[in-house]
Every structure is written in C-alpha cells, then in structure tokens.
Amino acid sequence: MPNPQRITERLFQSPSKYIQGPAALHNAPKYLSALGRSPLLAVDNIVYDIAGKALIETLQQADFKVTRGVFAGEASGEEIDRLTSIGRENSCDFVIGLGGGKTIDTAKGVADLLGVQVAILPTTASTDAPCSALSVIYQPTGEFERYSFYDKNPNFVLVDTSVIVKAPPRFLAAGIGDAVATNCEARQCRNSLNFGGALPTEVSVAIGQKCEEILFKYGKQAYEANKAQAVTPAFEAVVEANTLLSGLGFESGGLAAAHAVHNGFTAIHGVHHLMHGEKVAFGTIVQLVLDGESTSEIDRYIELMLSVDLPVTFELLGIPKVTSEDLRKVAELACAPGETIWNMERVITPEIVVSALKGADAAGRDYIARTGWSKSK
Ligand SMILES: [Zn+2]
C-alpha cells in the first residue's frame, strides 16, 4: 500500500457532466455547445459508419464546424501527435472522442495537447475509460506502455444507449469484466493513493460497492437484453455501472492486482485478440486467489463471469498451452515498478503472481468441472 509521503488528504474527481439515455447522440448539440463550435471528431472508420456520419450531420445542422480525424486503431503517442496536428491545422476548439476505449484514450490525449475541452461519446459499454482523467498508452505494436495523466477529467460524457445496445454483447460483457474488478481492487486501496494522488473518499468506496451490486443483480439480464437489442432498465443500469461507476470507482478508489495482471498479459502473444475487460475479469480471479479468498467467494465471481461468457481459465482465454515461461513474463510485467499491484496488502513477488495465475486457472477449471458449465451459443 504505497503512500511514501504520508499524504492525508482524501480526493474525489469526476467529469463535469454525465448524460445517458436512448437518444443522447441526437440531443448532442444541446450539450456540446457549451464546449465550442469547431470540434475535432476522433472516430475510426467502422464507428464512423455506425454513428459518426449521423453525429456529424446532427452537429452541422446545429452550425458546428466539424473536422473529422480518422483514428487509426492504436492509442499510441504517435497517434495522439498525429491527430493533434490535424486539430491544430483546423483551429479546433474542442475534441470529441466517439468510439471504444482506445479512441477515447486517444481523444483525451489530443485534447490535453491542444489545451481544449473534451467530450467522450462511447459507442460501447466495454471499458471504464470514458470518465477518467487518464489514458492507457500502448506502443504502436499493442504492448502496454504507460498511464498518461491529465489535469482534468473529460468535461462531458454522453452515452447513447440505443447505440450501445447495437454493439455485440461481447462488448457489454467485457465492460462487466472491467467493472467487476472495481470493488475488489478498491478494497485493497483504503490506505493507498488513488489516481488523483490522495486517499479514497467514502463515496469512492460506496461507488465500488454499488457497481458490484448492480452487476450481480442485472449483469446476466442485461447481457441477454443486449442480445435482443433491447434497452431495458437492467441494460441501462449495467451500462451505467460499466461506464460511470466503474470509471469513478477505479480512478478515485484505486486499482490493485486485477489491472496489473491485465497489463502483464500484454507481454505475451495469444491474448491480443481479447478485450481489456476480458483480461481484467481473469485478473480479478487472480487477485481473489492472491488475496486468499474462500472457494465460495471466488465461485460467486466465476459464476457471474461465466454467465456472460467471460474467460475464467487459460483455455477460455485462448492460451490452453501457456508455458510457465510465458506466465513468468506476465507476472514480471504485472510487478513492474509503479504498477498498481503494489497496492495489494499481501506480500507480492513475481513467483507469487505466477502461482496465483495458475491458481485462478485451476479454480476456474474446478468450478466448470463441478457445475458442468458449457459455453452458451
Ligand atoms: Zn479497466
């Protein structure tokens, strides 16, 4: 629990406004006019067809001058610099990030370099990226590089649930995997510094607990509603848990082993096809094993994860024959200096993390053998 400077302040931070509903994109001009008139819209080509084109038309009808910046796919320093130049050349006065986690993280970096405000319009509920004042920066090859921190959170987060519900259910499940880590990780961080550089507040703790409560109550129901493309109260609740509660919870509550294990997994091939939240889900089981939780407690999480088809074994992660050497690479990257794994109250070494990785896989296989679970089609 690193707090070497003995900081005693508690700190909570958040976006200025969070808006969620089934017609939020249509109503975007009403909210975005507070930020400027000439946005740089960071959007990849796929999301442009799904929602970008319609958003540009809506904004143009409301007299916005939109510059489209085509996001190339990786949230790297190079990509942030490239889009910043486009924003500068076109005198953009704010940035919109429309898309998934990597687009969002890139948009935040571009807005920071341009010194302008940023609106985040996620098109999936798959990560806790939209609300936070940090980006996860990757190398152009896809390997985890660093967290990049900004002075302020995104000004606006606008979530259109009629768009989110059209994304494949796998995205919502990944968001559940990311969000289910929130409370587990925050529990380890009561005396650690959060991403604002101070101690967690009571409300950060409560947000983590509420996030978990919603996921256990509605996670499966929302996943099924997503398959039916139905925006139901359960679906709205889980979108909020994945986006707002998970985002606020991790940033002001703190991260621990689950996300460090996720970052460790970027060191090996074979899992690059997996989404952030899918690796964080497995990382959560690793953390529970690492912390010596009971079988019945670990079973609760495995049951939730399997109910939304999240991976709980090496086989389900797509690495059935993973070697001890590879697990060692994962553990060493998870234990890099400054990693959030050092917020764990337990003694941590790469050897202990290798054992916890194997222990999590064993717990997942044991649960499946005991219950006869098989993947839904
Ligand atoms: Zn995350």
TrEMBL record:
InterPro entries documented for this protein: ADH_Fe/GldA, ADH_Fe_CS, Glycerol_DH
Alphabetical keyword list: Metal-binding, NAD, Oxidoreductase
Domain Alcohol dehydrogenase iron-type/glycerol dehydrogenase GldA: 15-161
Pfam families listed in its UniProt record: Fe-ADH
GO molecular function: metal ion binding; oxidoreductase activity, acting on CH-OH group of donors
Family statement: Belongs to the iron-containing alcohol dehydrogenase family.
Descriptive protein name: Alcohol dehydrogenase iron-type/glycerol dehydrogenase GldA domain-containing protein
Species of provenance: Ceriporiopsis subvermispora (strain B) (White-rot fungus)
